[in-house]
Amino acid sequence: MKREEVLGLTIIVVLVYSLITFLTVSPIHVSAQEPVTVDGVGFDWPYASCHALDPAGDLLDGVPDWSTSRDLLAWYYTVGTSYVFMRLDFLDLSYGAETASYGSVNDALNIYILIGWTGAPGYQEWVPDYVQYQGYGIHLPDYNWVLAVAIYDSTHYTVYDYKWNKVLVNTGLSVSFNSQWDLVEVAIPTSLLAQYGWTSTTRVWAKIATVVVYNGVSKVSDVIPNTISVGSGRAEWSGAVFSDQYCGTAKVVFVHHGNQHLTDNRALNNPSSINSYGYILYVHDYLTNRTGRRIPVTIHMSGTLMASYLWWDPGFISYIKGLISRGVAVPIGGVWAEHITAYFYDNFNDPSANFTKWYTQQVFGYTPLTAWVPERTWDDERTGIAYTISKYYYAVILDGNTHHDEWSPGTNKYKPHQYDTTKTAGRTLYVLFIDWDTQQLLLSNTDGGLNIDLRKKYVWAATNSDQQMIFVYADDWEKAAGIAGWDPYNPGRYNNSLTWIAMHPWIQVVTTDDVVNWLRNGYWTPVTGFYCGYDTYALLKTWVHNYPYDYRRAYDGWYWGTSTEKSFAWYGSGQTSPNYVLPDTTMPFGDVFGKTSFNGSPNNTVIYRLLAPGGLFDSTPKNELWWLAIAVANAMLYETAWHDGGDWDKDGMYDVAGWGLNVWNHLRLVNVLLQAAKWLDSTRRGLVTQASYMIGDFDWDGRNETIIYNPYIFAFIDDKGGAAPYVFMYNKTSNKVFMGIGAPAVYWGTWSDMWYGDSHVGLFADDYFAATGKNYYNAVYTIAYAYYDSVNGRVVVRLNAPDLDGDGYPDFYKYYVLYNTANYIYVDYLGVKKNGTLYTAIGYSVDFFNNLLYGNSLSQVNSPTSTYTFGYKNLRTGAYVYVTPIQGMTWTGSQDLVKYTMQYRAKIAVSVNTAVWAYAKVTLGYN
């Protein structure tokens, strides 16, 4: 018995995605003459060869054993030079069904294909081999057959002609069974058919039947077409299917949602493992090439994830762009870093959606048509999110079993809906609903192929008179890839399901944008008037404990808390029971709605102060640095208020995610970026003419910081480590601005402000002082003074290092000096009571915003192995930051040069001396 047990990509695809960029896989061609090969693999059967479909579950017999193996789904017919090829699809063709190798059935599966055509020399009106239906022989009142192919197994078969002559017996045909892909292929010599008046252009009709032989009696099980009945003492099987007819398709969409923060995410895409993002894409790439038709994938990558790969793994971005150019992948948009839109008004959601669309265009060269809503937490009643999304996208993805079933249960959730245009200012916004069955069952295989319940569902759709339905799989990309805690065997299951689908062309894989374009061009008609006030996906609702809200707004229980869930909004208040303490902050997070008041006012909360309508974002000039602040605020609000289901601080309440607090607690620093945006606006308007300074609590940590600026330089000097974590430079001639020091959108690995490691390295962030044996990067410095020196035309700021050795004096002094028209800053050190070597760090992120768009374009200038100038230039924009040790300083060497996310860190050894200044010059500019 011939079998082709094809394991598919699980074995044959273990390729490094970086090599995939240069790999070309051609569609299969058997020969110049024959369109397909009888080998048990169905890749080479095009959609046009499928001429008839049959519903699942329509067996005519009651024998339970091997029942799915007799359940016909499809008939194919295509003409070659030497052979006519036919194929049958089955619901689930079990291994050994044709020989009944186990079970109580004598012969579980025999197959009969009865074919005829006009102009034959004669016809037969009875089914061969005394096949019965309800105890009667089966008569054909119309579309009689010329040749009957009776297949008993892959090596035993008979071809009858209409005179009952056995023209072929166990030889002359090519027959292949495949139980994994649930199909049988047959090749019949064209020379045989030609003897009965057939030509290559002949219109053929067919009747197909599966038969079970039980206790010596052949009983019909399933038939195509299913038009058999009993009357006048015999069974009558009328009708036929034809070689020139076409069948419907089930339209399936595969959406993979990738959301990770801006950090080194290469572990999620190990090119040597099938447990990777790249493997999931390559499944679609491989199958597209193998079948010769699109098996596309829709991908959603948050802006932070895209920026991560642009910096760390640009080859992966290039591979995706190649897929997009070939129509194999389609990116969708949304908001930049997956902040939960239900908790923000249009003044923040709108620029985020706008920026994300623009960012996706810049990165992928593709304009997204469809939006992904974070956690599908949709609240149109409170925020008007439909109005916002419809300004930038034509469609949004929501959940069929919640957003649809709880708000529009009387309509078909498989059909695209059009949102109520009164909520979108008349703009068209389509809603595509995730199919729960597809989402939950795709990674659950049946016999190494697609889950059997999905097979039933898809053949139902393909045979349905309504061909404008879609079945959307949408879930975390990590899930299919089997990474980040998901089942590591999921990629193999995903491959098996997609391979089964690719071998069954009556399942049509499309993208969200395909559907949107069909709708926009009038080929499809949506269900109109849909509205969803608020809802999220089903599983999330079960994760929120004891919420006193409408269950459709369960996420509110994470934002404002329940009797057992800790309130996100209250973190930072300083309350200790439960524990809402956060370091380096004086205000809780709060909310834009003013529900959270602190010290008598909602304005004493971070989010309200920044993002409430009329707040600081609204009152800041909307220039390049304002847009940078938007991106950073998005990143710092990543997955707003997410809880992880644990009580990690042991206070009896379910906590928000610890990683989330690391990030959210730095939303405060966005205020510094808004200060920079105001400086840029004032500079452009000619209001900044000389060096100046500001002292205040700009990052809302309860301690004062200093900002120094002139028409060219803006530097924020923090008390932590005495560093200048954010430094900007403006070029008046070119009217361009860049961030040379600082990576504000990058993931934070600590709750507190720290400007030494963790991809957040400032300018001269002090580390270790040998004279005290202490570290200073997390220590608090004091602003001794800041003043304008009118004689020399400069601002001078002195910081006192903390007294970590307890001798009653600052451990050293640190100065920042900025001249009126300089594009450079001097950083000076002077000892107080002790001498020694101080190690300090510098983080270069030259043109940070450009790095978000294009990745690493930084070129190293010189080497950190001497006292000479060392720094980086951005080859794309010409921006540079160079540091020149002048006296008492030296670079520590290349061993301390480290690549972080969006920046490079180098270190300088400072000779702190009570009598001699140590100082360096930091120059920023363009060339």
| Helical run tally | 23
Could you tell me the radius of gyration in angstroms? Answer: 35 Å
How many β-strand stretches? 47
The dominant shape is: elongated
State mean pLDDT (0 to 100 scale): 94
Q: In percent terms, what proportion of residues is strand? A: 25-35%
**How far is the first residue's CA from the last residue's CA?**
74 Å
Helix content: 10-25%
Biggest pleated-sheet summary:
8 strands, antiparallel
Strand and helix layout:
Blueprint: H1 9-12, H2 17-20, E1 50-53, E2 72-79, E3 83-90, E4 107-117, E5 132-133, E6 136-139, E7 147-151, E8 157-161, E9 166-169, E10 174-178, E11 183-189, H3 190-194, E12 204-214, E13 217-224, E14 228-231, E15 234-237, E16 241-242, E17 250-258, H4 277-291, E18 297-301, H5 303-312, H6 314-325, E19 329-332, H7 346-364, E20 370-372, E21 378-379, H8 380-383, H9 385-390, E22 395-399, H10 400-404, E23 417-419, E24 430-434, H11 436-441, H12 452-462, E25 470-476, H13 477-481, H14 490-502, E26 507-510, H15 512-520, E27 527-530, E28 534-535, H16 538-543, H17 556-559, H18 606-611, H19 616-619, H20 624-636, H21 658-664, H22 670-684, E29 692-696, E30 705-709, E31 713-717, E32 726-731, E33 736-741, E34 763-769, E35 774-775, E36 782-789, E37 794-800, E38 812-819, E39 824-831, E40 836-844, H23 848-854, E41 858-861, E42 870-874, E43 879-887, E44 889-891, E45 898-900, E46 903-912, E47 918-926
Parallel strand pairs: 6-15, 17-18, 17-25, 17-26, 18-19, 20-22, 22-24, 23-27
Antiparallel strand pairs: 1-2, 2-3, 3-11, 4-7, 4-12, 5-6, 7-8, 8-9, 10-11, 12-13, 12-16, 14-15, 21-28, 23-24, 29-30, 30-31, 31-32, 32-33, 34-35, 34-40, 36-37, 37-38, 38-39, 39-47, 40-46, 41-42, 42-43, 43-47, 44-46, 45-46
Helix pairs in contact: 4-14, 5-6, 5-23, 7-20, 20-22
